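Lecture notes, unit on protein representations.

Consider one protein chain, 392 amino acids long.
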Amino acid sequence: MLRLKWFFLLLCLGLVSSAHGLLNDLIIIKNHTRPGYDDNIFTRTSGNETGSYYVEQIVSIDAVLSASQSQMLSTLYSPKFVWRDIDNKQMTFHNWTTKLQYKLPNRKTTIDTSHKWTVSEREPTDIDIDADITWSQTQTDLQFSHTFTRKNSVVFAMTRKTKEWSENLLAIGEMYTDGDFEQYSGSAHNIYELIHGKLFWTTGLEGTHHEYVNDRGGFYGADFYNSLMYVIGGSSILQLDYWYGHATTVLQEGTDGGGWGPSWKASLNSQWSKNLMTGLTLSYETVDSSIAFWNSKDVYKAMANLKYNITPKIETMTAVVCTESNYLADYDRNRTDLTRKDYLAVVICNTTYNINKNHALELNFMGFAMNPHRDLESVARNKLTAGYRLTF
């Protein structure tokens, strides 16, 4: 199996390299080699952790396959190969996105379509088992946009998303998680420029239908959407988003739960200098649940990030994400009136030393803690890698 994986990787590199001259240097290939240590390889609760040394090999192929005044076709493929020391196991993850943009002859109408395929590790949950659980997700987007005038445009968008888990395990109460789903969503937005180059207003309608497998149920909703984006001093962007609508949870026996309510998001992104950028986002929304007892959850989220170039060769990036997830009785798929609240904090720190445009050294850290105040449900995981990146 390992030989086949490496053969697949070399085949991709060979095909891209052979096309490199034909595409006028529109292909960028990066190869990351990262040995490191993971102190909780199965994302288990406190006291049940298993740690291991490992090596990551990440290849990133970013290519513009076709470009003209009316259209652009591009693709980004980034497989990740992981070898783990403790059990001599090899794993492969994928991230592949292809985009096509086409402008009609009137130059005012644009069609954008994209397809993304991702294979990744599971997020931290209450499932506590020695197993490598992964998920595979696809997302297809289609968007039509038309500009009437410089100050007025419309955007229509549709999305189909699917998710499949490698395992559907027993969770609370001897119930299978049944986390596989299919989701359809659509939106229609009108964008206005209220103040030249300063203030923009977006308003419209959005809708979502989300259905799990095996009659688990799902949820659907419709929202009226408003957003204001304000450019502050040419170096900062403040954006305020507000949804109000009806979110309905479809329970296992077919009855409905949920009701009317708001969702919101506020973000501020700033370029303080050539070397310093910051971002802050606060949000509240209803999303799908990976815990089988509830088909959706309300999530409060705070995100902060900082990017700073210490020198022309040394770059640093730090991001912190904190969430509070509320599983309400209205979202309980079996009408048992159970509720739950989870807390999660994630920290990501990356430092890169660019030797030149082709070679760089990397130091990366990712850590998270879930429900640290609960002894039996506390989950913590830390990953540290130090490696080398080749770009050609």
